[in-house]
Amino acid sequence: MRTRYREPQTLGSAGTLDRMARILDARNIDPAAVAELTDEPESFSPLDALSVGMPPRYQAAAADHPQVLAWARDVAEAAVAPSRGARRQVTTGPSLLMAGVVGSGKTYQAYGAVRRLVQGGVGVRWRATTAADLYADLRPRPGADSERELAAVSRCPLLIIDDLGAAKASEWVEEVTYRLINRRYNYELPTLITTNLAIKDLRAYLGDRIASRLAQMTTRVEFEPVDRRRHRAAA
User: Fold this and answer.
1) Do residues 36 and 190 lie in contact, with contact meaning Cβ atoms separated by under 8 Å?
2) Taking the model in full, what pTM does it have?
3) Residue 159: which pLDDT band, with cuts at 50, 70 and 90?
4) In this model, does residue 5 exceed pLDDT 60?
5) Cβ-proximal residues to 144 (8 Å cutoff; 6+ apart), any chain
6) What are phi and psi of 107, to 5 degrees?
7) Above 60 in pLDDT, residue 225?
8) What are phi and psi of 230, to 5 degrees?
9) Which end of the chain is more exposed for a tag (fewer CB within 10 A), N or C?
């Protein structure tokens, strides 16, 4: 089922207040009892809303890597408005593969890139997951519809896959990864991928089919071999 995009409404908008009044009247609730909620409406900026969905560690992430900033500009330029006067939305665009040692700042840059888009006035429906968590969610088990979950992840307009290559390799992992990457490749959906593997080692881990598609759909960035987490801790 396709979900139509709607611009968010603040509590103080006329339509919202009218609906609230009707609901209160139907339930015999005195509007004066909830006046405090409407006298000073609270509105949330798109950046505030974005931060709520981010891990606390990355809520203030600011991308500054030249190639990451270039990716954000390209995705913003490809964004389209669903209707006249509506906010531009991410629909298709390029992907980015960031490779480097543990702690080199790849995840920080990925979240910072999403914040950069929103700061630039671009709307985005997005999702972030580590590769290990993704495989755990997609592994068949009683009571779970793994195919539906795979379809949802595959169609997400913007996806962050963190630590690709960290999970133990297997035929099942390779097949699921191929299906996910292939769908995003075919529909040109922007994907931010981080990996601790050297780019030259990706083919051996992922297999030819996945590595070939990643080579075509992504710009590859190799981060300096510096563990910034340990560097900051030492400082």
Assistant:
1) no
2) 0.77
3) very high
4) no
5) none
6) -65, -40
7) yes
8) -65, -35
9) N
